[in-house]
Amino acid sequence: MTRTIEAWRWSAAEVAARVRHGEISATEVARSALGRLEAVNPKLNAVVEHRPDEIMAQARALDDAIAHGDPVGVLAGVPVTTKVNIDQAGYATTNGLKSQRELVARSSSPVADSLLNAGGVLLGRTNTPAFSYRWFTSNQLHGTTRNPHDARLTLLDALRDALGLAGTKKGCDQGACGACTVIIEGQRVLSCLTLAAACDGQQIVTIEGLIKAEELHPMQAAFLHCDGFQCGYCTPGQRSSRPSAPFKRSTRASPVTSRQTFDKRSAARH
Q1: How far apart are CA 182 and CA 152, in angstroms?
Q2: What own/partner pairs with CB < 8 Å and gap ≥ 24 does 143-152 have?
Q3: Distance, CA of 95 to CA of 218 (rounded, Å)
Q4: FRET pair for 121, CA 20 to 30 Å: which of 20, 56, 143, 167?
Q5: Quick one: 102 and 160 in the same domain?
Q6: Could you give the CA distance from residue 48 to residue 54 in angstroms, rounded to a whole number?
Q7: In the prediction, which pLDDT does 27 show?
Q8: Range of the domain at 164
Q9: How far is CA 22 from CA 29, 211, 224, in A?
Q10: Which of 144, 172, 187 corresponds to the end of one domain?
Q11: What is the CB neighbour count within 10 angstroms for residue 61?
């Protein structure tokens, strides 16, 4: 009868110590990890490829080495994963791209080899954003990986899709461009990097909320007064970046607007 052990709950240090001391076999640890993977991964889509037979073969080889008194590494029996942007012999290094789904690595990268040499058991290949570029993991090849603690929307998606507040824009979706900036409890926040559930009970102000009683916020009025020309996409984020700071006109600024300057330069050329 196979004993049920929730070794997947243990830390890496505890697993390695118990395997080295013979308190549990690497095979039992691998079986526990595979059981947990099969139970939760369908909902999370974190591991996009794994081969149970190969995993168990790795574990058995490690048990045989321990039985013969051979030295094992510091990760003895610890289940580990590699991302699909790292070469692992026999697996496609897709980097989340359909065009690389057949790009099978002939040899492993130093990262994968180091994990194996240290006694780790390579459990599977985990997802990554396309080109490993964005903050949240989603691509057209492997799909979306969901947060195990809270699979709900980011604040940006909740504002735009659920509430219809389209003023806040989705630009780079990795917190770099600032188009998604909103104000939460008076602080500037990048909504594409914030889970909506984390904002429960907090005051959120979007670009739509900067107008009160049909009166423009000073920041908005300044954009109009100074002809702050933009394509319009990132403007809401820029206007939301410092809405709570005191707005002061520079006494050194020229009263001539950019439109007037443009008109003068145009007239001079003619």
Answers
A1: 19
A2: 143/45, 143/48, 144/45, 145/44, 145/45, 145/46, 146/43, 146/44, 146/45, 147/195, 148/40, 148/44, 148/46, 150/195, 150/197, 150/198, 151/43, 152/195, 152/196, 152/197
A3: 45
A4: 143
A5: no
A6: 15
A7: 97
A8: 155-264
A9: 12, 68, 73
A10: 144
A11: 13
Strand extents, DSSP E, the chain: 47-49, 79-83, 121-126, 138-139, 143-144, 181-184, 187-190, 204-205
In a domain, 269, yes or no: no
pLDDT at 164: 87
Burial class of residue 129 in the structure, from the number of CB atoms within 10 Å of its CB (0-12 exposed, 13-18 middle, 19+ buried) = buried
Alpha-carbon span 194 to 199, nearest angstrom: 8
As a whole number of angstroms, the distance between CA 242 and CA 220 comes to: 11
103 and 220 part of one domain? no
Q: Which two tokens stand for residue 162?
A: 């659920």
**pLDDT tens for residues 20-60?**
999 999 999 999 999 999 999 999 999 999 999 999 999 99
Q: How many domains, the chain?
A: 2
User: Which domain CATH number covers 86?
Assistant: 3.90.1300.10
Residues 83 and 40 in one domain: yes
Question: Which amino acid would we find at residue 151?
Answer: A
Instruction: Fill in the DSSP letter of residue 145.
Output: P
SS3 state of residue 26? helix
Residue type, 225: H
Considering the domain architecture, whether residues 138 and 220 belong to the same structural domain is answered as: no
Reported as a single tens digit per residue, the pLDDT across 68-95 is: 999 999 999 999 999 999 999 999 999 9
Helical (H) or strand (E) element with 269: helix 258-269
